[in-house]
Amino acid sequence: MKEKKIVLTGGGTAGHVTPNIALLPSLKKAGYQIFYIGSYQGIEKGLIEEQKIPYYGISSGKLRRYLDIKNFSDPFRVLKGYQEAKHILKQLKPDILFSKGGFVSVPVVLAASRCHIPVIIHESDMTPGLANRLSFPFSSKICCNFPETVKMLPEGKAVLTGSPIRSELRTGNRTIGLNFAHLSGEKPVILVMGGSQGASAINKAVRSILPKLLNQFQIIHICGKDNLEPSLQNTKGYIQFEYIKAELKDIFAATDLMISRAGANSICEILALRKPNILIPLSKAASRGDQILNAQSFQKQGFSNVIEEENLTDELLYQTVKKVYQNRKQYIEAMEKSELADSISIITSLIQELSQKNHK
């Protein structure tokens, strides 16, 4: 019997890679030989090579909607990437391509379509990004995280799946997490996360109300690279990290309430782990506004309480923390009713269904 093969693609940011990594155990269990196509030196290269998955680099260019001198050279890089991807796909002969998006994925999706390989795309945000929008016409199915997104996608292609999250995040131990953070079990724990680079507005607001918060809570603060505050290093009940990697599952297990940005992968992890939360999305001034829409959808579904960054004040954050913690059971109950608790199984089944048509 011919071995089943799948090619994964996606890159540019960790958010375009980690859902692919979350799928790996399920795909291996389903009997797939897995390959990855990304850019020559993008963040995806190191992340995938850590997983011992065969990695193929291609030329990649960014598709900008603003004036930049690279707009003249990048189309040639994309064209080169398309030719390279087509050569790789003809060599590998996969049954299916799964794309998580990012600009490197566009030439790979086009090449797969040209080679008559079924394509499944996953769109994390409420409103699709440019790279995925360019790829949609060449896809068989499009997975998404939000009910509102289904209406924005080509008819007959949309599947509401949620986002794959790493299975190990569900295996944390609260006691280990508390010990790692040098905290006790006497008070509930707030986990503050601002994304990989941290979030200065969130960091500042949390630290401003720290004395009041510490009367009732303990705080684990993942503040981002170079954002540690030396004057708070020995504050009882408060611990800060630039980032946490292997221990994150135990930190999640120790957490009773979260304050977070509203990146799609982050909030899907919050949903899967059933953590009452306050979302402070990246402002429109610093983004295309996708985090605001993500957060509003979660608030509408009863999963989250949202404070827009423009409205963030120390007192508002403090009062919201008290309110969300007081009503934490209703947030947990709403999340438990979500149909998106098992996205990995849903997506794996979809991959198997479509790849069978190409598997001989």
How does this model look, in words?
The protein has 360 residues and is α/β, with parallel strands linked by helices. It is built from 15 helices and 13 strands. It has helices spanning 18-29, 43-49, 74-92, 105-114, 130-135, 147-150, 174-180, 200-208, 210-213, 248-254, 264-273, 290-300, 314-326, 328-336, 343-355; strands at residues 4-9, 32-39, 55-58, 96-99, 119-123, 141-144, 158-160, 189-193, 218-222, 238-241, 257-260, 277-279, 305-306. The strands form 2 sheets. It has a 7-stranded parallel beta sheet with strand order 3-2-1-4-5-6-7, sandwiched between helices. Helix 1 (18-29) packs across helix 15. The longest helix has 19 residues, at 74-92.
Keyword list:
6-stranded parallel sheet, single chain, 360 residues, alpha/beta, 13 strands
Summarize the structure.
The protein is an alpha/beta fold and 360 residues long.
Oligomer: single chain
SS-based class: alpha/beta
**Strand order in the largest sheet:** 3-2-1-4-5-6-7
Low-confidence stretches: none
Span between N and C termini? 8 Å
Main sheet summary: 7 strands, parallel
Assign a percent range to the helix content.
Answer: 25-40%
Q: What is the CA-atom radius of gyration, in angstroms? A: 21 Å
Instruction: Give the H and E element order.
Output: EHEHEHEHEHEHEHEHHEEHEHEHEHHH
Which word captures the global form?
A: elongated
Overall mean pLDDT: 91
Approximate strand percentage? 15-25%
Number of helices: 15
| Count of extended strands | 13
Secondary structure topology:
Blueprint (H helix, E strand, L loop, with lengths): L3 E6 L8 H12 L2 E8 L3 H7 L5 E4 L15 H19 L3 E4 L5 H10 L4 E5 L6 H6 L5 E4 L2 H4 L7 E3 L13 H7 L8 E5 L6 H9 L1 H4 L4 E5 L15 E4 L6 H7 L2 E4 L3 H10 L3 E3 L10 H11 L4 E2 L7 H13 L1 H9 L6 H13 L5
